[in-house]
Each structure stands twice: as C-alpha cells, then as structure tokens.
Amino acid sequence: MNSFSFDRVGAIVRRYLYLLRSSVPRALDLIYWPLVQMLTWGFLQTYLAKAPSAGPLAGRLGLAAGALIGAMLLWDILFRSQLGFCVSFLEEMWSRNLANLMMSPLRVSEFVVALMIMSLIRLAIGIVPVSLLAIWFFGFNLWGLGLALAAFFANLVLTGWGLGLFVSGLVLRYGLAAETLVWTIIFLMLPLACVYYPVSVLPEWLQHFSWVLPPTYVFEGLRALLIHRIFRPDLMIEAFALNLVIFAAAAISFELMLQNARRAGALLQTGE
User: What three-state secondary structure class fits 229?
Assistant: First the structure.
C-alpha cells in the first residue's frame, strides 16, 4: 500500500489551479457574491448608524449593524469553504474523470486533502479582497478581531469541510441528480445557526437543535466580542469538539458511499 504522498496532493491542487487560472468567469464568481453581500449589509450598517429616527439608540444600532456585517463575512467563510470543497469535487464529476482518479495511485485521503487545500485557496480569493473593501467602504475591520478571528475561521472552515465531504459523498453515490444539494444544503443551517440574531430569539425547544451546530457557537462568540467586548474561548472549544465529531462522521459516510458507488459501478457513470 502506497504511503501518503504530498506530491500527489500537490499534483491534484495544481490541476484545479490550472482550471481556475484558465477561466476568468470562475475567478470572478469567487468575488462577486461576497462583494454584493458586503455592500448590502454595509449600507444597512450605515443606515442604522445614521437613521434620524433612531435618536439616542443610533450608536447601539450602528454597533449591532457592525455585528451584522461581521456575521455576513463569517457566514461567507462557512459557505465558501463548503462550496470550494464541493465545486472542486464536481469538476471531476463534470469531466467524467473521477473513475480515472480512483484507479490511479492517488489515495482517497490525498484526494480529500487536495480538496481541502483548494477550498482554502478559493476562499482566500473571495474573502480577502472583500474584507479589505469592507474596511475602505464601511470602516469594518474583520482582521482587527485578532486571535478571535483565527478561532472563528478554524471552526467555520472545519464545519464547511465536514458538510462538503458529506455532500460530495451523496453526489458520488447518487450522481449529478444530487448536485443541487451542493448549493442549497448549507442554507438549511442558516436559521438555526443564528447568524444574524442571538439564540435566545428562537423558541426554547428549537434552541436545543441550534446548539448542536458548531457555527452557532461562532456567531454567538462574534456578538459577544463586538457588542460586549468579551472573547468566549469556551464557545470556541465546544464548537471545535463538535466539529471533530461532525468531520469524523462525514469522513466515514464518504468512505461508505464511495465503496457503495464502486460496487454499483457508479464511478463510470458520473457524467450522466
């Protein structure tokens, strides 16, 4: 059995980079939606901070809006990390190349690591320029969160990878008929993860489901940091523990669905 090879991982990453470099629309798409959302929430922040009807509450509304634009940027980290993972996987499905990869010396773990690296690259292309524009246009500095941002980022990316791995397994098992899940499944998490509002606004019975999701801890931590100036490491540790469980379960499910697809001969029909 071949040992894990970073050379093979690097070869797969270069393949995806060549695809990205050769297509301007692919690259622009990574920036387009984060930019549109940043401008939308940024203008809302400006409105809340300056609304004449707000009176003495204007300052607090502006601060709350700062939490909104920060939540938008963090949500995009979660969304783009999952999407970047899955889109690279779909490239192999669209080109009917997955069977070739599975018959090569490439190990499944190497393929997954390459997808994770590509997810980070695609995420950086989209989020870095948009976060810098947020400073220029609206004075919101995501990078000013310091070490807290590193904790937020790590947990959100881990969640995105776990979800991306699970969805990729579904597409692998059921073919491109399940492709829609790549673009939509993460939005099932949006209301329960309490991206733009605290968990306390949910019905009590629904709060229990919300606390099962690692992003909930991240967004609660963001609001605590921006509104109360308190960093909550306990929330980050709980989120990380949940992420380890979720990623392990996603990895097991991906391996099981891969084996099922091999037995069913689905790898040779991925383009259908």
Answer: coil
Domain membership of residue 161 (yes or no) is yes
Q: Report the distance separating Cα 174 and Cα 57, nearest Å.
A: 52
**Between these two residues, 146 and 269, which has the higher pLDDT value?**
146
Chain centroid to Cα 48, Å, comes to 28
The total domain count for the chain is 1
Domain-embedded: residue 202 = yes
Residue 1 within a domain: no
Q: Are 133 and 30 in contact (CB under 8 A)?
A: no
Give a yes or no: residue 164 inside a domain: yes
pLDDT digits (tens, 9 = 90+) for 142-197: 898 889 999 999 999 999 999 999 999 998 888 887 888 888 889 989 999 999 88
Which of 36, 117, 34, 83 has the alpha carbon at shortest distance from 187? 83
DSSP readout, 31-54? HHHHHHHHHHHHHHHHHHHH-GGG
State the maximum Cα–Cα separation within the chain, in Å, rounded to a whole number.
Answer: 70
Q: State how far the Cα of 78 lies from the Cα of 89, in Å rounded to an integer.
A: 17
Q: For residue 37, count CB atoms less than 10 angstroms from its CB and return exposed for 0-12, middle for 13-18, buried for 19 or more.
A: middle
Other C-beta atoms lying within 10 Å of the C-beta of residue 251: 18
Rounded CA separation 210/212 (Å): 5
**Where in the sequence is the domain holding 263, given as residue range(s)?**
6-269
